[in-house]
Amino acid sequence: MKSLILSTAIKFLLPLLILFSFFLLMRGHNYPGGGFVGGLVAASAFALYTLAEGVDKAGKILKISPEFLIPAGLLTAVLSGTISLFFGEPVFKGMWFDYAFPLVGKFGTPFLFDIGVYFVVTGITLKIIFTILDY
Known about the structure:
Largest sheet: 2 strands, antiparallel
Shape: elongated
Strand order of the largest sheet: 1-2
Low-confidence stretches: none
Helix content: 55-70%
Mean pLDDT: 89
Number of helices: 5
Structural class: mainly alpha
């Protein structure tokens, strides 16, 4: 059943929710939030879009398959943990660049790990939602 109200509202809500999920991701390595919460917000944005427009349109607007996001996120998370080995430090030791990037602050391996978690959570949640709604 299509809802005119939801179809109209999601066109405005989708960009706002995605932007909010990036805000949570960027904020997470210093304050509450991070990859998990940001990934859930991004997945919920696409879940609302899927309910309003269908799985096919949601897949087209996502442009990346959820099956690709999961291994990409796992690879990013594992890479963030092994970078410290190249510098003679223990696995998953937090390492930061000396330069502070505008709007992000200091970039380091914890943030890279959060990006991996963001991709994994978004991918798994969207795969579940797309599978349930595409019956």
